[in-house]
Queue: 2 jobs
Job 1
Amino acid sequence: MWLRRAWIALVGAALVVGLLAILIAAAGKPVGEGLTLIVQGATGYPRTEAFGPADAWDSVLHDMTLLLLTGLAVAVALQAGLFNIGAAGQLLMGALVAAWLGNQGNIPAPVHLPIALLGGAVAGALWALVPAWLKVKRGAHEVISTIMFNYIALYLTHWLLTAYLKDPVSDAPQTAMIAPTAQLPLLHEAFLQASWGLGVAVASAVGLWLVFYRTVWGYELRVTGANRDAADAAGVPTPRRMVEAMLLSGALAGLAGAIEVCGVQHRYFEGFPSEYGFEGIAVALLGGNHPGLVVFSAWLMSALRSGAYHLHAQTGAPKEIALIVQAALIVYVAALYLRKRRAEG
């Protein structure tokens, strides 16, 4: 069994390297230099005077934090047989609420940060509630409703920001800086973006693993996603489990937005980075919806993203190279999954 898994991993690694080489060559850049720059952007090596490990890992760990949480959000829903495409909107709602709570001066300092993070998670969960209710009560497809709620979140946050929450001393559409008591500390003094939100994300992954595979609730959730008819026949309250899964999914996405506000941006602004919500779909699929594997896939996607941006900054090669490689990896994993299902069937 371990030989087969090792072979699958080696083939996947060869696919990544080969596709990167083809794309770099297609962009008209030297393949050897391009691959070296991607590795440098992901790890910081080979070190130069202008770029080193701290620069690379600052970017990778920052992206990994957000991709891990949004990947877990999508994975939770998929475990229950639901496809949550709304992580981007849930992230925005969580970020805006965290920024608002971070600006409240009447919250005691010891609990200010936890309340801001919890408020973001609750906002994300509530934003997922209506699509969940529409699914179980009216049979509305969650893909359609969550996509629609992404647009509602985008324009609702814009209206709230410009009409009520805009920083009065700034002309830019952004909130005031949150209080220092609501800010997450950075992982290291050399970092500018990577905060202790990564610890929260990893702890969330460990907690989900325990819940999925060591509790009755987690078992019922997975059975609901695997075969809802069989779960109903066994007495599992599938509608309730589906709603709970969507609420937990939305909470994780909202927490990602709150961590970005409290740990990095320290404010909410027009154009807040919601694309992590969509990239979380790729992270979840590549990780097979398993919390442990989602940690690895979040790191891999972050490393590819950081490496591609570094290549773009140094040579002008398209930064979308990372997206193409990510898509190829997902197709590869999906093909393996379909082959396994056919062999079992």
Job 2
Amino acid sequence: MLIFFIHGVAESKVKFAQPLKSLIKQDFYQRGHNLPHFHSGFYADILNTKDRIWNFIYQDLANTK
């Protein structure tokens, strides 16, 4: 599973989503599920390079399968 965080609105910290990632990983681990893959990005970067980002996402998903 891929979880993709887009953040950066009124927040410039790179690890802004880290506490939420940790909680999600902990919940998956406790339930005995495979841990998800995470990707984070700032909204401005995503909007400016969305085609390139989606290509990376599709490639990562294909590699995971």
